[in-house]
Design goal:
single chain; about 100 residues; 8 strands; mainly beta; Histone H3 K4-specific methyltransferase SET7/9 N-terminal domain
Length: about 100
């Protein structure tokens, strides 16, 4: 899949964003079954570049990611007031995409 699309994985995680050669590439959002959400950049199916992880407990981390690891944390930990709104990120996940695939 290339371009914009949405995938529902067999484990229940949902990715919505850009694809290249069947992998997450560019800007994308993933909602994990445990309630965590990642909003940021991807390269070859891994978190790479700027991104924010919002945990189910309301804390979040924003910074630079490399190979799925947060390597430069801009803001230590934020609480619900200072972090991204889970509702706002969820709205972006629920937007209709041009393509959907199940993995």
């Amino acid at each position: 899949m290339d371009g914009a699309g949405r995938a529902v994985y067999s484990n229940g995680n949902i990715y919505s964003g850009e694809w290249k050669a069947g992998l997450e590439n560019g800007r994308g959002f993933i909602s994990y079954t445990n309630g965590n959400v990642y909003d940021g950049e991807w390269k070859d199916g891994k978190k790479l570049g700027r991104g924010t992880i919002l945990y189910a407990n309301g804390k979040s981390h924003t910074g630079e990611w490399n190979n799925n690891v947060l390597v430069n944390n801009d803001d230590k930990e934020k609480n619900k007031k200072g972090g991204r709104s889970k509702k706002r990120v969820s709205k972006r996940l629920n937007k209709k995409s041009r393509k959907t695939k199940k993995l």
